[in-house]
Design goal:
The chain is an alpha+beta fold. It has one helix at about 1-20, and strands spanning about 30-35, 35-45, 55, 60, 70, 80-85, 90-95, 95-104. The strands form 2 sheets. The chain has a 6-stranded antiparallel sheet with strand order 1-2-8-7-6-3, with no helix packed on it. Strands 4-5 form a two-stranded parallel sheet. The N and C termini lie far apart (about 55 Å).
Length: about 100
């Protein structure tokens, strides 16, 4: 009985310790546009977009922060529409809503 209790305690301690460490997939949603990384604010932006300025994502990275133009780390589907708007903002069309991304 003491062995079982000791094993359970060790397992619980290991589980608690592992909870504090982020996994490799814990990165903020980001997109690279014009050599700059933009991060999601999770804000829906009511914006009218001229179709002639829409660009589309070209690749997906599983290893963190995008390194190539048009690359994202949040959507495996290529061709996700995005638009550069005034200032240091980009909006990305996700689930039929334009989501704001800002450069840091």
């Amino acid at each position: 009985m003491k062995k079982l209790s000791a094993i359970l305690c060790i397992v619980l301690i290991l589980l608690l310790v592992s909870c504090g460490k982020p996994s490799n997939g814990d990165f903020p949603a980001a997109i690279m546009v014009n050599g700059t990384i933009y991060y999601s604010t999770n804000n829906v932006v009511p914006v009218e977009v001229d179709e002639s300025v829409i660009q589309y994502t070209t690749s997906y990275t599983e290893n963190g922060i995008p390194q190539k133009e048009g690359e994202t780390n949040f959507n495996r589907d290529l061709g996700t529409p995005y638009v550069v708007v005034a200032g240091n903002k980009v909006v990305v069309l996700l689930d039929n809503e334009w989501i704001e991304f800002k450069a840091k």
